[in-house]
Fold these 2 entries.
Entry 1:
Amino acid sequence: AKAAGGGSFRFYTPDMGEASRARMAMQSALRHALERGEFEVYYQPRVDLRTMETTGMEALLRWHHPVLGEVPPAQFIPLAEEIGMIDAIGHWVLQQAAVQAQAWCVRFGRAVKMSVNLSARQLRSRRLMQSVRQALQASGLPPQQLELELTETALMDDPAMAATLLTELKSLGIRLSVDDFGTGYSSLAYLCRFPLDSLKLDRSFLQIHPGDVSPWRLAEAIINLAHTLKLSVVAEGVETTEHLHFLRSTSCDEIQGSCVSDPVPAAQFEAFMEAGI
Ligand code: C2E
Ligand code: CA
Ligand code: CA
Ligand code: CA
């Protein structure tokens, strides 16, 4: 088999390995996933650490394929970027999430923030601005209730381009957040040149061995520095009461993780809200 750019295989040949065959099958399945209605947006609550009130939710895409089963986004998002499907998929997620958020604002009788993930490739797309504008218009969601999450690595890929785009996005009145903070090589001082509202502390900061507290101290320092820079902080991957206790000893603003709820389908999210948790 011939390796094409980016390590992807272009031709199907008998000597092709099992892994690349599976990959080709997944690529062609992904091309039809949208039109076949195989995608579903799940939502994970984000709660205020002090009051434990749900302040919003993150939209997380799920792909249910009749044969491949549940393909994790960490697998299909990079593939969608490679085959040029990410714009269409990203646009769909944004529309779904915005409409859902507006419906929930009405149903729950208060403003909730909807966070939507953007990949590096989407950031480079000329269609992004238009897509965000359309999602806001079609849903009627107030812009300050929409938040876009961009990973640190995506922002640092081309910082000058990112700065221009983020300024443009910010002019729509939406919120901007840096995702997976602490996994890349950027400094907060540098990131603060971007018009960001919040920072999501990567869950790796909470995953430590008992007795080894230094990543927690580091997390605390990041939270404090973020506040100095006027960024609110969301801790992600909060799983245990131990995590919760630690975070309560800091000035972290919001949390997300399995200790509150895993990402769930919209109907289940409503049940969660109506149970008053
Ligand atoms: P992310 O944005 O960092 O999302 C958080 C991931 O952590 C999600 O994985 C979520 O299900 C998982 N998670 C939530 N709570 C916990 C916890 O307590 N412990 C642990 N260990 N994990 C937790 P998921 O849903 O598999 O998504 C993986 C990544 O795929 C996301 O990471 C995001 O980068 C990307 N992704 C998901 N949906 C979309 C989308 O609609 N568009 C784009 N561009 N990327 C997406
Ligand atoms: Ca995210
Ligand atoms: Ca994250
Ligand atoms: Ca991530």
Entry 2:
Amino acid sequence: LARGGLARDLAGRHVVVSAGGTREPLDPVRFLGNRSSGRQGVALATTALARGARVTLLAAHLAVPAPAGVEVVPVPTAAALLDAAVAAAPLADAVVMAAAVADFRPVTTAATKIKKSRGGVPQVELEQTADVLAALVAARRDGQVVVGFAAETGDASGDALAHGRAKLAAKGCDLLVVNEVGGPGHPTGFEGERNAGVVLLREGGEVPVPLGSKEALADLVWDLVSERWDSPLP
Ligand code: CTP
Ligand code: CA
């Protein structure tokens, strides 16, 4: 299955990848953010480029450089990511949502820095952001492949994989890459060099992801996307 980027098998394809983590501003100097480095999304962009695709990278505060040769669209917030994704998707053969998108944002952003000297503790009211992946699925055209990522932990209501299956059903994307994440010291997921998990397929079935590099996972994702271009589901 793994072609390892030896062939330019994605030539003629245009793919859109989101990467990094959005930041939702509280005031001019503070934000609500997350720990995504953007490494997985950048690995997806790098491998797609190496395999001949045209790549648009929706970049949300990457901690690592974007590869030369991809079109980079900065998307600082969830709202900016939604706009850029909806704008880019109609011309894309695949859209991969590897970014960690804020689920909630402050209802208002203070125009000036919030000061302690004002007294009291600020109460921050949050509102939910739009679900970009759901918007992409709703607008998906024939032959387009939409991929989501989910970092899950097991809890009282189920293990990480059970949460992943429920999420795939709820989101309706073609592929969902599920990573089990742990706390500090866990070898996979946020900020690490390595990733492991399983890719869930919309029609059922799952492809295990061996513990390996983020590039290896990226190549596996493109292999599975490419298979769907070759044999679209009814
Ligand atoms: N996602 C998105 N827009 C959001 C939130 C998430 O497009 N506002 C995308 C992510 O990029 C990822 C997928 O949805 O590809 C799953 O993200 P995740 O945070 O796991 O799912 P949520 O639906 O936000 O559920 P929860 O965080 O409550 O588990
Ligand atoms: Ca979320």
